Amino acid sequence: MSREERNTADDRELAVERDAELEAARIRDLLGLDLSRVEPEVRVLARVLNRIDGNGDADADAPDAAPAKPASRARRDRARWLLAVAAVLVLGIAVVFSLLPSGSAIASPPSLHYTLEDPEHADRAPEAAGVLHELSTAAAASTPVGSGDVQYVESRGWNSPANLDDPHATIRPFEQQWWLSLTGAATLTQRQGTELRPDGTIDPAPVTAGIVDSTDETPPGTVPDKPAELSRDPAVLVDQLLVGMPPTCEDSQAERAWCLLDQVNALTTTYLLPPDLMAAVWEMLAGEPGVRTLGSAVDRKGRAVETVTTPPHGSGYDTTVRILLVDPTSGQVVGSETVALETDLMEIDGPTVTGFVTITDARWVAEIGDTA
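The chain above was modelled as a monomer; its predicted structure follows.
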């Protein structure tokens, strides 16, 4: 074996080790276990990925917000497997949603009201090309909020984690602050959330503040500047976003749309996308027949939004609908909703909101820790 081949093999081995460490951290986070001994950069990446992946699904974790995804059948099945083997990797006991008591029922946030179609009928919702072109125009004409070199995103939401102390399936509120510098340094603060008002909206002045669960910091170079790597040409952008996605993303128009929407959700909950890139994203999705709209809605912060979704997505053990909520004046994503139509991971009775993320503030600030 040549020196170059040995170096390549060593690099692959290190990559495998890093991936294994990250997966273990994600499992611990999913199960609500202590992460204090995990390296900070691994800890924050695990939590961010779980938030992005989450919104109440088995691979949750989140987030959906600030930096929320059942991305594909392959990844969702893999996440379920990770939960199933967490017994071996973490505690030696089996803790998976499929083993929840048969009588458990979830406490769910009320659904939003959509003007054109309900989530359970997303397969017959109209194609979103028209509204997507409008959102692209709005995004292109928008200007970034704030100034500085640090992206700040504040979000509130609900998700459904596995909890060893409470074997019942419940959807729990969280609050999160996310700072991301152009240097790749990041800080993630998470706290227990406060309950929604009876109509499902966020209380702007709750009686009690959420208790801080954790604050994690990572050094420069941790989070890549993905927006800088992406093309503003919709035809090129679609290929870039499909790189590394499972082959199932090309099985049908609906599956392809699901995968692309998932990628967009991950991007827009991790970064403040510049106007030209956000405009290109909407033009890209406008060319996908599988992308639909449920019409207009009012989000949990009381804002008028447009919706972007796909037909219901089946994984083999659940069927869900992911809905992006977009500010029609800025063209920016301001939240997402996940609605389960059926699932064997928890007991639900009809279409159920199993998670959401509401971005309550998003702006550029001068330093990590600033909020204005």
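DSSP finds eight helices and ten strands in the chain.
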